[in-house]
């Protein structure tokens, strides 16, 4: 099978392109990207793609300006839209304090996304090939990797609503160069590919040739084959991870929770993946790395309660005996100083929480027993006091209905099994600084309804519902 036949088969096998899409093709001017652009725009007309050519000038080499002009001429000659940007990669490297390779990749992908947004493209097509795949797998092994890393470069990856496609992963560099020769294409040569001060170039120019000569003359194909096998395992594990994370995850954001026993009963190979996926879905943080995941799972095996772990990004994990709760801890001083005057009669909004509606009624208008969202208070006992919504403060005390006296608010929260992560954000209705209702939980005993009550302050708490947007 010739090069074009291989690429057609690869596209079909991995369902990369259906036909008729608008795509951004990344073109540096080298053999790989020029071969890719020729195949998609000239040799595969049946795909009927709307192609936009994108090129980044890294401002690293004197010949970079000529290369940009070369790519632009190709695009014009082949009647394709062309987008180019010049970015000083060395300056970006210093600004972000990252390597030159990372800075170049960041700049390129930012450009591709910008162009995709401008032209409403659904995919970005890149020229990575079989040799790149072999180098990536070998580099991942050297650095230490799991199954996902052995899968190397994915033929198709989804990110931010875009597909990143690599249809040349089935071709070696030699096959690509032969295609360019056959089609009369004259690509540019990037002199930086011959420098060994880049890790990947050292692999390409020194390590892989030695492995070929001394151990396996087909090491590139072997590593690429390993990636293909690992990809199947990775896709299976990702499918199982998604299934179990959806099944086990409760809530979202600062209300994210997962039942500890349900997580720990999963096969060990799935536990870490499911935990990372749940954290991703929570929106609190990116998925933690292997070191943090293993440390957290080790702590879970011990069955400890209370605060058990803190992840990067100030994401705290609390075990209440049954559930693991994930949240970004709210500093007490952020809420303890907040005071929201109660609107009476009327509706008081508690930002991010809900609303309290207050009105004055007669005792015979009440329905018993009241649900937890309602509170009945003797209005004449608080009529001359300032009513306000507050949050927990140091030294706060509360006299629960039915109790013989007051207790520390913290002790009440513990008795009610309110998880520590949630305590600082529980709204409290106060009268002259005294807690008269822990909103949605319990009223204060001195302000309960009695036979002598003539007017009732009726309060209704409604939690804000999360909006669901149609996709």
Number of strands: 22
Cα-based radius of gyration, to the nearest Å: 31 Å
Report strand order across the widest sheet.
3-2-1-4-6-5
Structural class: alpha+beta
Kindly give the count of domains: 3
The CATH architecture of the largest domain comes to 3-Layer(aba) Sandwich
**Span from first to last CA?**
42 Å
Low-confidence stretches: 466-471
Overall outline? elongated
Calculate the mean pLDDT score and round it: 89
Helix content: 40-55%
CATH top level class name of the largest domain: Alpha Beta
- The CATH topology of the largest domain is given as Rossmann fold
Largest sheet: 6 strands, mixed
The helix count comes to 16
Tell me the strand percentage band: 15-25%
Task: State the fourth-level CATH superfamily of the largest domain.
Answer: HUPs
């Amino acid at each position: 099978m010739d090069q074009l036949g291989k690429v057609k088969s690869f596209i079909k096998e991995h369902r990369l392109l259906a036909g008729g899409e608008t795509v951004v093709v990344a073109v540096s001017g080298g053999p790989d990207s020029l071969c890719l652009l020729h195949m998609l725009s000239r040799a595969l007309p049946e795909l009927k793609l709307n192609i936009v050519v994108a090129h980044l000038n890294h401002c690293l080499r004197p010949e970079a300006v000529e290369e940009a002009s070369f790519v632009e001429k190709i695009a014009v000659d082949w009647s394709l839209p062309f987008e180019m940007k010049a970015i000083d990669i060395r300056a970006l490297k210093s600004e972000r304090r990252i390597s030159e390779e990372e800075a170049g990749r960041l700049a390129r992908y930012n450009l591709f996304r910008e162009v995709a947004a401008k032209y409403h493209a659904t995919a970005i097509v890149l020229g990575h090939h079989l040799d790149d795949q072999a180098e990536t797998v070998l580099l991942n092994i050297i650095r230490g990797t799991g199954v996902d890393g052995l899968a190397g470069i994915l033929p198709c990856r989804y990110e931010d609503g875009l597909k990143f496609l690599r249809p040349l992963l089935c071709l070696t560099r030699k096959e690509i160069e032969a295609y360019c020769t056959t089609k009369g294409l004259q690509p540019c040569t990037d002199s930086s590919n011959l420098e060994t001060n880049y890790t990947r170039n050292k692999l390409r120019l020194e390590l892989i040739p030695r492995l070929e000569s001394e151990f396996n003359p087909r090491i590139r194909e072997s590593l690429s084959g390993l990636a293909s096998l690992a990809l199947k395992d990775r896709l299976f594990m990702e499918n199982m991870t998604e299934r179990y994370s959806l099944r086990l995850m409760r809530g979202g954001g600062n209300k994210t929770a997962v039942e500890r026993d349900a997580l720990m009963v999963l096969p060990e190979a799935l536990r870490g993946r499911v935990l990372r996926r749940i954290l991703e879905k929570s929106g609190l943080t990116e998925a933690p790395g292997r070191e943090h995941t293993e440390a957290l799972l080790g702590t879970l095996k011990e069955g400890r309660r209370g605060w058990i772990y803190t992840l990067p990004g100030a994401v705290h994990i609390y075990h209440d005996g049954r559930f693991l709760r994930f949240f970004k801890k709210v500093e007490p001083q952020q809420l303890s100083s907040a005071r929201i005057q109660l609107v009476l009669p009327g509706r008081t909004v508690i930002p991010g929480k809900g609303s309290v509606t207050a009105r004055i009624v007669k005792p015979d208008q009440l329905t018993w027993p009241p649900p937890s969202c309602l509170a009945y208070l003797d209005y004449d006992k608080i009529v001359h006091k300032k009513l306000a919504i507050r949050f927990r403060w140091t030294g706060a005390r509360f006299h629960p209905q039915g109790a013989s006296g007051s207790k520390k608010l913290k002790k009440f929260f513990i008795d009610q099994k309110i998880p520590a992560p949630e305590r600082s954000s529980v709204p409290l209705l106060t009268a002259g600084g005294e807690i008269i209702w822990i909103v949605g939980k319990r009223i204060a005993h001195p302000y309960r309804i009695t036979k002598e009550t003539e007017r009732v302050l009726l309060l209704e708490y409604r939690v804000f519902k999360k909006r669901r947007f149609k996709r």
